[in-house]
Amino acid sequence: MIGREKVVNKQVRTYIALVLSMVFWALSYIWFKEANRTFYPLTIVFIRLVFAVVIMTTFLLITGKFVPISKSDRKLFLMLAVFEPFLYFIGESFGLTYVSATVCSVLISTIPVFSTVGAWLIFREKLRAINYAGVIISFTGVIIFILNPNGSLSFNIKGLGFLLLAVLTAVGYNLTLSRLVGDYSPVFIVGVQNMIGAVLFLPLFLILDARHFFSTSFTFSMFRPILELAVFASCGAFILFAFSVKKMGISKSNVFANCIPVFTAIFSFIILGEKLTLQNVSGMAVVIAGLIMSQLDGNGKSLSEAMAFTGKTA
Predict the structure, then answer these.
(1) Which end of the chain has fewer CB atoms < 10 Å from its terminal CB, N or C?
(2) Which of 35, 27, 302 is nearest to 176 (CA)?
(3) How many domains does the chain have?
(4) Which residues pair with 147 in a beta bridge?
(5) How far apart are CA 264 and CA 266, in angstroms?
(6) 242/186 Cα distance (integer angstroms)
(7) How many CB atoms lie within 10 A of CB 99?
(8) Full residue range of the structural domain in which residue 279 is found
């Protein structure tokens, strides 16, 4: 009986960790919107990465999870960081300045669908009929979500373009990450890619945003959303999700990620006052249904693990 209670308690802790990670990632879109009222997108990303690097490095040092990177993998880590966080954050952050948090979360949630297609095209991963159907259904849901009844776009085309950049670079990240997940822990990989990402963003920050940043009268309330992004979304959520994947498995954990747009919609309504139409809700439901179908037993283990973590360093 005692042994069974311990198992149940461990399962409960795992589910709590998993749900919390989803909530934190859903809130990340809200926190960015709040930070964007004061700071430019590149400033938010750079400061967030600096905070995240300090936190993640401390965590890796305390847990003793720093490992040497083999010479052959150094180029892969550089490619990884260029895809995500560098290009991915540029696409997502600038996209969020033009569209609502809910729209952003729905479009970003299609990353596994594009990754499934990319794996099929590049690695010739075998897919089942239900995976193909899921891809088609997800795209149908996106069309329902972003189009007006008269066929015109209901959202800013520039914002959609930036978010498409984020989705496509996440696919490149996914395919690169699939070559590393077997040799390094997810937390270590994210820690290293964030370090490289911060270095890549530094010149852009100094050239484009530094003057505005240093001319701003700072208050703690201005930095609070960026701290929340770094502590809870970039670090806390990722560590909790990695813990859940280890305990529960990739497939079961990743299904929960499909709830992020729903959580974002709820928080956007409560915190930001964003509204959803019946068409938006219907499109979101179709997208999530297609996402689940596209991920059912269609990928190899390493690629599935990479897909589970893609887009979640944000």
Answers:
(1) N
(2) 302
(3) 1
(4) 153
(5) 5
(6) 7
(7) 21
(8) 2-309
Q: Angle between the 250-257 and 238-248 helix axes, to the nearest 10 degrees?
A: 140
Q: What is the pLDDT of residue 229?
A: 95
Q: What is the pLDDT of residue 182?
A: 79
Answer yes or no: is 111 within a domain: yes
- Distance of alpha carbon 275 from alpha carbon 168, whole angstroms: 28
For 2, 16, 66, 241, the CA distances from 6, given in Å and listed in that order, are: 6, 15, 31, 21
Q: Is 126 part of a structural domain of the chain?
A: yes
Question: 3-state secondary structure string, the chain?
Answer: CHHHHHHHHHHHHHHHHHHHHHHHHHHHHHHHHHHCCCCCHHHHHHHHHHHHHHHHHHHHHHHCCCCCCCHHHHHHHHHHHHHHHHHHHHHHHHHHCCCCHHHHHHHHCCHHHHHHHHHHHHCCCCCCHHHHHHHHHHHHHHHHHHECCCCCECCCHHHHHHHHHHHHHHHHHHHHHCCCCCCCCHHHHHHHHHHHHHHHHHHHHHHHHHHHHHCCCCCHHHHHHHHHHHHHHHHHHHHHHHHHHHHHCHHHHHHHHCCHHHHHHHHHHHHHCCCCCHHHHHHHHHHHHHHHHHCCCCCCHHHHHHHHHCCCCC
What is the percent of the chain with per-residue pLDDT over 90, rounded to a whole number? 40
For 54, 105, 151, 239, 276, the CA distances from 102, given in Å and listed in that order, are: 29, 5, 20, 24, 9
Is position 314 within any domain? Answer: no
Single-letter code of the amino acid located at 22: M
C-alpha–C-alpha distance, residues 283 and 288, integer Å = 9
Tokens of 49: 């990465």
Q: What is the pLDDT of residues 274-299, one digit of tens each?
A: 888 888 888 889 988 888 887 676 55
